[in-house]
Write a structure and sequence with these properties.
Helix content: 40-55%
Number of helices: 20
Structural class: alpha+beta
Strand order of the largest sheet: 3-7-6-4-5
Radius of gyration: 25 Å
Distance between the termini: 68 Å
């Protein structure tokens, strides 16, 4: 398994189409768990040969326009099943990669102002289009054996792949991926959708608040934060409010406790590549789940613990995944190039409030008006070197200089200079945004295992600032601004991009 993950890393970096890879692994896991060892072993050999030799793999070309790219991916649809998945693998592996590709195709279609039209119907969904067949399917893939539960990921993943099909377009959050419903690619009855919602409602574990694979007796086999984070959105909106009066989100505090326990786990060794990969997914999705849906139910002490865990995770990501020369992140720890899947981590800063004063206050109870104030200092030609000493005295990661001395109303507007403290551990969000924009504009990668370039570009459009690089000579540049300006407000941030100190700088010519 470790070998396959290493080969997937290589093929991603080489620009091969790898969107089916992890779903193929889940298909193999299904065969082995259900006792079909002959097929499972056959598929292991098939996938290994494919990844080692690239035989049968598709190298994604460079496209001249979105229409060419759309037509390229449309050709990958299976004419028999309608899925975007190799039909040599079990049925349970079909929907995940298909929905991922459809989401990307929808973005491409909207770029050229055309409706998304597939070459073939999504016939594979016919097998589960009644409440009865759906529940049998969910029970089948949601139940795993003892050995299968020890894999980094289980076939329970395939249950949460179905979650987006519950929602209605008219009542959904803007960020929900309802590509099938919105484009009329398949129609499910209200009874079918309620059957799925009720299945997940009943499947939640009361002791932990989690969803996850269960034994035949109904016992939770594994504390599955990764898939839980995707299921929660079926029950609550982005404000953490219940969507369905008859099916409210239960066991919120148990869920928060389970999340904090999982976040406190040790980081796997780098050589355990599949474990590190799963740890990374769990951490990222757990943080997003807490920030989006649950933080308002956490008490002050829990928020402090969560902040500590988030800081540790961010430090690990920059230490082991960040490719400074590219300005983006790799999918796996250690050597290698930046990838689309890896660089999706960047948007965790959006979720934790790096761009929003309101989010910082709501999530962490931090208001920039109430942070430590180091006072007002006049910077002159004779004491220009004191700027660094002043900053060092308060500690922190980075410092942004805002034009003027008025109250700061936006974290990324009016930033005229950026600098770092000696204790800096990670790039400031201003520099990181600048570098990420540049990498997205230049990379020839278009599709990862589950993240498309268009997905990242679309999310980047929501960010108002273009970012900036740090000052080359901070004291001199600060002084040059102060000569012709009424003053600067220097705000020091930690590695979570939360403000911790501020000071006012005024200028003079002495």
């Amino acid at each position: 398994m470790k070998h396959l993950f290493k080969m997937n890393k290589l093929r991603q970096e080489q620009g091969y189409y790898t969107a089916e890879f992890e779903f193929k692994l889940l298909g193999i896991a299904y065969c082995l768990d259900k006792g079909d060892y002959k097929k499972g072993i056959f598929l292991i050999k098939k996938l290994t040969n494919e990844m080692e030799t690239t035989e049968g793999m598709i190298k994604v070309p460079k496209f001249d326009n979105p229409e060419d790219e759309l037509n390229f991916y449309l050709e990958l649809q299976n004419p028999v099943t309608g899925a975007f998945m190799d039909d040599a693998y079990p049925y349970s592996s079909y929907h995940g990669p298909t929905e991922n590709i459809l989401i990307y195709l929808d973005k491409l279609a909207r770029k050229i102002n055309k409706p998304l039209r597939l070459k073939y119907p999504l016939r594979y969904l016919d097998q589960i289009n009644t409440p009865e067949t759906l529940i049998r399917y969910l029970d089948d893939i949601g139940t795993v054996g003892f050995l299968a539960s020890k894999f980094p990921q289980t076939t329970f993943h395939n249950t949460r792949d179905m979650v987006n099909l519950i929602a209605e377009v008219e009542t959904s959050d803007e960020d929900e991926d309802l590509v099938i419903q919105r484009n009329g690619l398949y129609k499910f009855t209200p009874e079918w959708k309620e059957a799925m919602l009720k299945w997940f409602y009943d499947y939640q574990d009361p002791a932990t608040g989690l969803w996850g694979p269960k034994s035949k007796s109904g016992k939770l086999r594994k504390k599955d934060l990764s898939n839980t984070a995707s299921i929660v959105k079926a029950f609550v909106d982005n404000e953490g409010n219940n969507k369905h009066p008859d099916y409210p989100l239960r066991y919120r505090h148990e869920l928060i406790n389970s999340a904090m326990e999982k976040m406190s786990a040790d980081v796997p060794r780098d050589e355990d590549i599949e474990r590190v990969h799963e740890w990374d997914l769990v951490m990222s999705k757990t943080i997003k789940m807490l920030a989006r849906y649950l933080m308002k139910y956490a008490d002050v002490e829990d928020k402090e613990k969560i902040r500590d865990r988030v800081k540790e995770y961010i430090n690990v990501k920059f230490e082991k995944y960040y490719k400074r020369d590219e300005g983006a992140f790799s999918h796996y720890a250690g050597e290698g190039k930046a990838t689309l899947d890896g660089s999706a981590f960047f948007f965790i800063f959006w979720d934790i409030g790096a761009y929003s004063l309101v989010k910082q206050r709501d999530l962490w109870g931090i208001d920039i008006k109430d942070i430590g104030n180091a006072g007002t200092y006049e910077i002159t030609e004779s004491n220009i070197s004191d700027i660094n000493k002043l900053l060092e005295s308060v500690g922190g990661n980075s410092v942004r200089f805002y034009s003027g001395t008025q109250e700061i109303r936006d974290l990324t507007s009016d930033v005229v200079l950026l600098g770092y403290l000696p204790s800096a551990e990670v790039p400031d969000i201003m520099e990181l945004t600048y570098r990420m924009r540049r990498w997205l504009d230049s990379t020839e990668l278009t599709m990862g295992n589950w993240v498309a370039k268009a997905d990242l570009q679309e999310r980047m459009e929501e960010i108002d600032t273009v970012g900036m690089m740090p000052a080359e000579n901070l004291p001199e540049q600060v002084y040059d601004i102060l000569i012709n300006d009424k003053g600067l407000t220097a705000v020091v941030f930690d590695q979570m991009q939360l403000p911790i100190h501020k000071m006012i700088l005024t200028g003079g010519l002495k």
